[in-house]
Give the backbone structure.
Amino acid sequence: MTIMKVFTKSIGVIFYLFSFIWPKKNIVIFGASRGERYFDNSKALFLYYLEQGHDAYWIYTKKKPCVEKIDSSRFVKANSVRGCMLVLQAKLAFSSYGTLDFWLYRFSSRTLFVQLWHGIPLKNIFFAERKLTLMKRMQYCLEISAFDYFVVSSRLEQYVISSQTKMT
C-alpha cells in the first residue's frame, strides 16, 4: 500500500471517529461527482433547501461553482478548515455519486447520509458486476453501508437497485 493510500484512509478513519463526538447542528450538506461538479439531483435539492431557508452548503473539491443568485459562502472547499467543520457539524448529507462526493470524509451514524443517485442503471453495477474480486466486494460493502437511505424514482428502480446493492 502506498503512502498516499495510507494517508487518505487515515483521514477517513480519523474523521469518522471525530464525527461520533462532534456536536451536530441543523446543517445540511450536498455533494456530487466526487466534489468536482455542481449538478445532478444534489444540485436540485440544494437549491430547494436554500429556498426553504435551511442552513445548506455545497461541498466541492476542485473549482468553486459560480452561481450568481446564491451567496458564495454557501460553497465550501472540502479540504479547508471551514469545510471540515461544516461536515463534522452536519446532521444531514446528500450525495449523488457516493461517499467521495465529500472528499475523504466519512460520516458516523449521527449524520443521516442519503444517496440520491443519478439515474437508473442500464448496466450491472455493484454486486451485479461480473468477476468481482474480493477486494472490490469489500469496497462495495463499505460504500453501500455508509448510506442510511438510497432514493429511487419507481418500484422498478427500487427492485433494480436493491438487487444490485443488496440493500432492502
The two ends are 34 Å apart (CA to CA). Residues 48 and 130 are 39 Å apart (CA to CA). The domain at 3-118 is CATH 3.40.50.11820 (Rossmann fold). Residues 3-21 form the longest helix (19 residues).
